[in-house]
Amino acid sequence: MNLEKKFLKAISDFNLISPDDNLLIAFSTGVDSSVLLHLILKFKNYLNIREVAVAYFNHSIRKQSDEEELFVKELSKKLEIKAFTKKEDLFSYAKKNKLSLEEAGRNLRYKFFTEILHKEGFNKVATAHHLSDLAETMVLWFLQGSKNGLKGFKPKEGNIIRPMIYITKDEIYEYAYENKIRFFEDITNEDETILRNKVRKSIIPLLKEINPSLENSLFNLSSFLNIDEVFFDNLVKEYKSLYKSKFLNLNELLHLDKAIIYRIIDKWLLENYSIKISYKQLFEVLKLLEKNKNWQFKLQKGFILKKEYDLLYIESNYDKSVSYEYKLYPNDEVHIKEANLIITSTIENFSNIDKLKYAKNKVCFEYISQMEEGFIVRNRRNGDKFVPFGRSSEKKLKDIFIDLKIPKLERDKVPLVLFQDKILWIAGFCRSAFYPIKESSKKIICFTLKEVKSANN
Amino acid sequence: MNLEKKFLKAISDFNLISPDDNLLIAFSTGVDSSVLLHLILKFKNYLNIREVAVAYFNHSIRKQSDEEELFVKELSKKLEIKAFTKKEDLFSYAKKNKLSLEEAGRNLRYKFFTEILHKEGFNKVATAHHLSDLAETMVLWFLQGSKNGLKGFKPKEGNIIRPMIYITKDEIYEYAYENKIRFFEDITNEDETILRNKVRKSIIPLLKEINPSLENSLFNLSSFLNIDEVFFDNLVKEYKSLYKSKFLNLNELLHLDKAIIYRIIDKWLLENYSIKISYKQLFEVLKLLEKNKNWQFKLQKGFILKKEYDLLYIESNYDKSVSYEYKLYPNDEVHIKEANLIITSTIENFSNIDKLKYAKNKVCFEYISQMEEGFIVRNRRNGDKFVPFGRSSEKKLKDIFIDLKIPKLERDKVPLVLFQDKILWIAGFCRSAFYPIKESSKKIICFTLKEVKSANN
Fold this sequence. Notes:
2 copies of one chain form a homodimer. By secondary structure, chain A is α+β, with helices and mostly antiparallel strands. Chain A is built from 17 helices and 21 strands. Chain A folds into 3 domains: 3-229, HUPs (Rossmann fold, 3-Layer(aba) Sandwich), CATH 3.40.50; 238-316, Uridine Diphospho-n-acetylenolpyruvylglucosamine Reductase, domain 3 (2-Layer Sandwich), CATH 3.30.465.60; 325-451, 3-Layer(bba) Sandwich (Phenylalanyl-tRNA Synthetase, Chain B, domain 3), CATH 3.50.40. Chain A has helices spanning 3-13, 31-42, 65-79, 90-96, 101-120, 131-142, 147-150, 169-178, 195-210, 214-237, 240-243, 250-253, 258-273, 279-289, 353-356, 397-403, 408-411, and strands at 22-26, 51-58, 82-87, 124-126, 156-157, 160-161, 248-249, 295-300, 303-308, 311-316, 325-328, 332-336, 341-348, 362-366, 375-378, 385-386, 395-396, 416-419, 422-426, 430-431, 444-451.
């Protein structure tokens, strides 16, 4: 099959182009994107494309970039299509954002393309990624053992399309020479200290000695890995309530299949703590989860993954526990910023108490006149004591926290409601024996605990 | 971590050995299995292993094999353990069964080990597969694009355990020299025309220039690919009813996710037709399934995959349609071997007819005395005509088959019940207008169609 047929077959196999598309071509002046531009213009009418334009991102990395930018402008004038260009300093951006040059380049390019899509009314970006690119990408990730990278890229991802996915680099060069297509040669392509070049120049030729149709075989591998991953992506979304919480509930997690468990842990760490866990660490964590005791596991500088009771959470050196103390008057409320909680106090009728007795987030006490002076809401202090409801002797608050299986990290957040140095309520957990409501009680005071929903939860 | 620690860690991480195991060691006299034997004997008491024995399979492929067999016998005498040996001609076996030497060797070895397990009371086989073996296997399958092979082998598969999974080949050699462990060198290991050797000698060193801990990275990749595949294996088993049938029901199949669809097709072809479909073919089939029309797809010599209406099936050149014809008397039955079906005829009471009217597998007609002479049950012939119930004119049977969406391959199997050259019933599909039951009917005759269950369905 010749190059043009492969180009059209990919468009048809993956529904890359629909009638009336406005297509922006990611144009680098290299041979790949020059051939892509040529092909798209050649088949523009056949494919019913409405408009074609090029976008050139000048990342100021090579001396020739400015010359190339000029070339893009002249070429587009000649071809009577729009050209969008942008110049940015890749080195500074990469340094500032602690990214590799490759990542930084990708970020900036896609940002630039997305801007044009939104502002200029284009609906798709065509990139010149081809079959040899796919093979290189897959080899690079394979030798790093990355299951996620290994699947390579897809012919269609969102509004990005890759119509050269069936075409090899050799075919692209050959086509360019046959059709006298002008392009710039990227001299950095020869530099074998760049990993990707080493893969292209040394490793792939060796692999092709064993399997001459390596690229096609890897394309198939990529297709099936992508199908599997799409399946898992959809499945894992069903467990949003699990991974959207700072504390990962092991009672629910450990009922699931390992294939779901490791994906939830990965997603949970990334979404809640911006931690990218490595496969090696993930594998260790899976092994630890089989153990029925508490443990901690160092993830990266300053972050420790902890299992306590039925919860998994991150303890960070940066999370410094803060002491807090607020005053709360009857019929008023207090917002505890440190714990994202609100406690309200209300003087209520006696008649309500029956249904309130066991509510976790609301408790009531007999109201006495001295309470007008208000209550203290604070977190724990060393030496705190507590008399649980139904008992007469005091216990160490610390022991009660242990009995309640409250993880250490949480303990500093739990609000305590005090009246005259006595802890009335461990908010959300249990009430004390003080000021019980009696038949003779005239007024009662109730405390209610509410969570403050934050926008990103 | 030194080699011994890695050995014990693998045993603990994957629960490879339980107290009182009777362990058979797959012993080849090479460095890997010699070190394995050494380690297992060294830690036999520590691990509470009850008995250790070696099994040596002499595949008569090298001149030195007989010398090795003798060595095994002497060594086991010295170590006071049992040795099981077996000699078989690998070349003839591979040729006869059309297998590669590697496959043939694996088959024969595992058959030999399984026999010993059953006969001699051993419960596990320990093999000397190590981390470098895993990496080689994965590279070999990766460059062939095989997702299934890519995942490599597991530390534990059924009753096979691989306690050297954390250890590299270099570490094994070093340990063997340090501990003065005797072993035979396999001279075929140097032959670079053998793929695996080329991978070991040329490709892996190059990959390690980029990632020095390649083997560990690939171990992680293998672990996660295996976790995913176990998940899919279990999931796909839920669709047994689909893939256990010669005809794959597309109405049910196409509701599923692509990740399940391709696995069901793969399993269906293998289990029903012993066809191993390639990833390339599978990818084409997935694309064809998106088309809403009938198609056929050549799989391999003599086998065509066909989509007709809502069914997928295999048409084989070897499947020759056979004409059949049987005589059926009232109150008797006929077994149609060609279609695995039984038709029974019974003279019944009028009162039953209401509920039978629409039953697919049972129809009734007015009984007249001439029917004593019996019916013909046969498959279709060219030119057959049929008068459907509720109509008065005849139609070509062929057109009715098309209307009923019966796949071509099935049409030759469908039994027709005839009386005096008239088709009364297209068994299992529809009845004719002849001999309808009337208020005045005195006796009725009913035909019932049953499938014969075969043992492997």
